[in-house]
Amino acid sequence: MPERALDRAAPFVLGLFRIVVGLLFAAHGAAALFGIFGGGPKSGTVGTVAVGAWPSWYAAVIQLGCGLLVALGLGTRIAAVLASGSMAYAYFVVHQPDGLLPLQNHGEPAAMFCWAFLLLVFTGPGALAFGSLLRKRSDDARGARPLGGEPRGILSAVQVNPGARD
Fold first, then answer.
1. HSE-up of 164 (CA within 13 Å, CB side)?
2. Which of 52, 84, 115, 146 has the highest count of CB atoms within 10 angstroms of its CB?
């Protein structure tokens, strides 16, 4: 019986995970681009990076843009694969030369974000995603029905299985 309750909550927990990870990633990019949220030289972030500076400025733009898209649940899988790849690049190019392990090279955030976004690539956005609402409205306007017939219950508009579109 407890497994059923956990299974019913899984899409919502996944949605909350996506929102938190996306907002944290976006905040990191905003701190680097605009020096807000405690960003700046004393906090360890660059503060405001010069426009076009490789790779800092591009990384910050990816962090802000992909973080917001993931948090909102819009194009989650595409934004997550880009974010995951950027964090893999950050880990192997920026952090790895300073030591093999994340604890040695201070690459824990890059490694954690990389794996968190890779998880979202395969799971999809979960519940509470704007992309699911927009897709449902589009399907309703065309008269499309989900596989299996009539929609059932509160989760009828939410697709969290690996085969779901996003």
1. 26
2. 84
pLDDT digit string (tens) for 6-43?
A: 889 999 999 999 999 999 999 999 998 988 887 654 44
Write the CB contacts of 133 (distance below 8 Å, at least 6 apart in sequence): 157
CA distance 162 to 166: 10
Which tokens in the block code for residue 135? 């897709």
Task: Give the residue carrying structure tokens 């519940």.
Answer: 127
- Taking only the tens place, the pLDDT of each residue in 90-125 is 999 999 899 989 999 999 999 999 999 999 999 999
Question: Among 24, 5, 45, which Cα is nearest to 113's?
Answer: 24
DSSP string, 1-33: -HHHHHHHHHHHHHHHHHHHHHHHHHHHHHHHH
Round to whole Å and give the CA distance between 68 and 66: 5
